[in-house]
Amino acid sequence: MSEWLIYRGTGAPHDGMDRLPAPPPWREFDGGPTVPPPVALEPSSERRLGQRRREASHHRPSTRECEMVNAALYLRRPLLVTGQAGSGKSTLAHSVAYELGLGRVLTWPIVSRSTLRDGLYAYDAIGRLQDAQLERAAGRAGAADAAGAAEEPGGGIGRYVRLGPLGTALLPSARPRVLLVDELDKSDIDLPNDLLHVLEEGEFTIPELERIADRAPVVEVLSDDGTKVPVRGGRVRCGAFPFIVLTSNGEREFPAPLRRRCIELQLPVPDRARLTGMVRAHFPEGDDERFTELIDRFLAAGPGDVRAVDQLLNAIELTRQADWDQADGSARRVTEELMRPINRPR
User: Fold this and answer.
1) Given a cut of 50, is residue 56 above it in pLDDT?
2) Angle value at C-alpha 205, between 203 and 208, nearest 5 degrees
3) What does the DSSP assignment read for 254-309?
4) Which residues contact 73 (CB under 8 A, 6 or more apart)?
5) Is the pLDDT of residue 208 over 90?
6) pLDDT for 265-276, tens place per residue?
7) b/e for 202-214, b at 16 or more Cβ within 10 A?
């Protein structure tokens, strides 16, 4: 094991983050004051990793994956991970958070309608207007509440602002947050370019708070973690640049300005050893001969066929619950359907 590796891919938590060197001068950020550490890893991460104390010995990333992850950690750059569906792209973010003790993984699933602001923050102007109308309609009954809101910084505007996953990742924290931007290639054509400034500068502004900064220099807003955090002058600037994983299924090319700001990693189609490790991470009886047969069938894809690892795991789970050798062979037929190539018409 190379001594320079902070993330080792062993699946065993350790204190390697304490050995991470200072960032290069061009990637230093001075946001502050530091916000409290994030909540612990969520059960969703354990489900993805197949934890239950088995992931450490079975489900390990390749040497190249470890090297590229560490390059992103050292250089404070996003990691752009491209690979076939089910090749473990998003799992990599959860694995880093688990091993390095970086807390809950912030997740931003991208769709064709996603905008940069969706990732940064949301301001519920309509909700604020409705509350104000209700208070006016309530008359004296709402007078106390209205007075209380008026005493809050900005007249209580912070109650209507919530940071998104990217905005929360850029809060000034002692350790980098882990952010998964899932399936960026599904986005509108403008989003990759819109991300450039935020990823380069590690900061963004909230105009609704910036406009009242002279009257309310500090406003508490809700983070994606569900906790209240202070925003000063309407600006959020990171202290430790987050570990950002941008995933892509390779369905489109990204602009060169985005790619040069990222560390790129291409994940290969999972081979037998990797598939076996994934199966053993989720199923304690991973040496069952039925599982071996299903892995063989999964790998026996025709030219151009695309299968996702989720299909294999679903088929294996079905064989655990159903009688594989029953007389009518229905379990075998269903598993055949479950592992049909996803790019082949039915």
Assistant:
1) no
2) 160
3) PPHHHHHTSEEEEPPPP-HHHHHHHHHHH-TTTT-HHHHHHHHHHH-PPTT----H
4) 6, 7, 20, 176, 243
5) yes
6) 999 887 888 888
7) bebbbebbeeebe
Is pLDDT at 147 greater than 80 in this prediction? no
Q: Round to the nearest angstrom and report the end-to-end CA distance of the chain.
A: 46
Instruction: Using DSSP, state whether 149 is helix, strand or coil.
Output: helix
Is the bond into 341 cis (omega within 30 degrees of 0)? Answer: no
| All residues at 6 or more sequence positions from 345 whose CB lies less than 8 Å from its CB, including other chains | none
DSSP state letter for 2: -
Average pLDDT in the chain = 86
Strands (E), the chain: 79-82, 106-109, 121-123, 161-163, 178-182, 203-205, 218-222, 228-232, 235-237, 243-248, 263-266
Q: What is the CA radius of gyration of the chain?
A: 24
Q: What is the mean pLDDT of residues 9-35?
A: 92
Q: How confident is the model at residue 328 (pLDDT cuts 50, 70, 90)?
A: low
Q: Is 308 exposed, middle or buried (0-12, 13-18, 19+ CB in 10 A)?
A: middle
CB-based contacts of 55: which residues, under 8 Å, 6+ apart?
A: 11, 49, 95, 281
Decide if 267 contacts 82 (C-beta within 8 A): yes
Contact 286, 58 (CB under 8 A): yes
What DSSP designation does 26 have?
Answer: G
Read off the pTM.
0.86
Closest CA to 295 of 96, 282, 170: 282
User: Is pLDDT larger for residue 268 or for residue 142?
Assistant: 268
d(CA 197, CA 249): 24
Structural contact between residues 246 and 81, judged by C-beta atoms closer than 8 angstroms: yes
Is the Cβ–Cβ distance between 99 and 61 less than 8 Å? Answer: no
pLDDT at 246 over 70: yes
